[in-house]
Amino acid sequence: MTKENKKKRILSGMRPTGKMHLGNFVGALENWVELQNSNKYKNYHLIADYHVLTTNTDSSDILDNTLDMISDWLAVGIDPEKSPIFRQSQIKEHSELHLIFSMLITTARLERNPTLKEQLQDLKVENITYGHLGYPVLQAADILLYRGEVVPVGEDQAPHVEITREIARKFNKTYGKVFPVPKTKLTNFARLPGLDRKKMSKSVGNTILISDKKKEIEKKMMKAITDPKKIRLHDPGRPEICLVFTYHQKFNPEEEREIKKNCKSGALGCVECKKRCAAAINDFLAPFREKRNYYSKNKDEVLDIIKDGEKRAQKVALETMKRVHEVMKLG
Ligand code: TRP
Questions:
Q1: How far is the centre of ligand 1, averaged over its atoms, from the C-alpha of 186 (Å)?
Q2: Which of 42, 68, 78, 331 could join 73 via S-S bond, C-beta 3.0 to 4.6 A?
Q3: pTM, full prediction
Q4: CA dihedral sign, ordered 139, 140, 141, 145
Q5: Whose alpha carbon is nearest atom 15 of ligand 1?
Q6: Ligand 1 centre from 220 Cα, in Å?
Q7: CA 157 to centroid of ligand 1, rounded, Å
């Protein structure tokens, strides 16, 4: 085996929701870049554009959102030479494998998926579509088409990887061994909450974006929720329950101890603390900015990068489907 072939394959992806926020960065992107640069893995990164349609059939923004999202991926260090980036919709084998897998799992199993239950509640969906129920089946096809072994995702996606493992085993047992049984790799830092302490999410409007400029970060930070009992400047605060302190821990570790001490004693007021936090986040994002600006002005180049990724991903997808057809005695 060549060195390149010995590397474990990573498959991860996101639905194209447009510009990325710090929650996306901490929950996934940072991890992907680290794994990519460790040289122990071969990363594949998928744009789940068909998955978008499970909750919103309007497809008119998908391409714009894809280009915005990928500009951020590239800005934070996904290297498309090493790690192909590609759209699910452009590699037909995703749909084909999804169809085959849909026979290997029961609807009862899919109805038990906790991520789905949460989503139906959040979105107040009463009548679920066939495609939405099958969300994890398409995700299993995404992962297994590249014979992915490691899937770095946030906690909410772990049930989908579990279903993928079940489908892989079932396929191998029924037809012959083609697929690895992949493992979830959770990110080190728990979910980064949004400015209102709820889950950071574009639809809620509680985000700080990777592409935000200094002024925007400062303005947003002023709205962040702190310890509700710390009302006046010199009231003692409780950093352990303060959102801004969580951000300091992640983006300003050098000052973490001093801030904790001075917040608790009352020496540090929230306004000053927020200014320092905004400055730290700004410094953290500064190195990504130049690349981000470049790609936002050169969308054609971003699309070329994706198309190139699609050519490379397609090769792997065809190899896998050839094996699938062989063991199934089709064709
Ligand atoms: N469901 C994932 C999310 O919402 C996106 C996704 C689609 C994915 N296919 C994948 C993630 C395959 C990991 C592997 O974030």
A1: 13
A2: 78
A3: 0.94
A4: positive
A5: 14
A6: 29
A7: 7
Burial of 163 (0-12, 13-18, 19+ CB in 10 A): buried
Task: Dump strand ranges (E) for the chain.
Answer: 8-14, 41-47, 85-87, 150-153, 183-186
CATH 3.60.15.10 is held by the domain 3-192+299-328: no
Residue 152 Cα to ligand 1 midpoint, Å, equals 10
| Residue whose CB lies within 8 A of the most ligand 1 atoms, among 17, 139, 191, for a mutation test | 139
Which amino acid residue places its CA nearest to atom 14 of ligand 1? 12
193 close to 26: Cβ distance less than 8 angstroms: no
Angle CA(277)–CA(278)–CA(282) in degrees, nearest 5? 120
Q: Which of 123, 124, 131 is nearest to 88 (CA)?
A: 131
What letter represents residue 198's amino acid?
A: K
pLDDT of 259 over the 80 cut? yes
Q: Domain map of the chain by residue range? A: 3-192+299-328, 214-292
Dist. CA 102–CA 94, nearest whole Å:
12
Measured by CA distance, the residue closest to atom 13 of ligand 1 is 12
Q: What is the pLDDT of residues 290-331, one digit of tens each?
A: 999 999 999 999 999 999 999 999 999 999 999 999 999 997
Q: Count other Cβ atoms within 10 Å, centred on residue 123.
A: 12
Asked if 151 and 185 count as a contact pair (C-beta separation under 8 A), the reply is yes
Domain 214-292 matching CATH 1.10.240.10: the answer reads yes
Give the tens place of pLDDT for each residue, 127-160.
999 999 999 999 999 999 999 999 999 888 999 9
Residue 4 alpha carbon to ligand 1 centre in Å: 25
First to last CA, the chain: 29
Q: Ligand 1: which residues within 6 Å by Cβ? A: 11-15, 46, 48, 51, 139, 142-143, 151, 153, 157
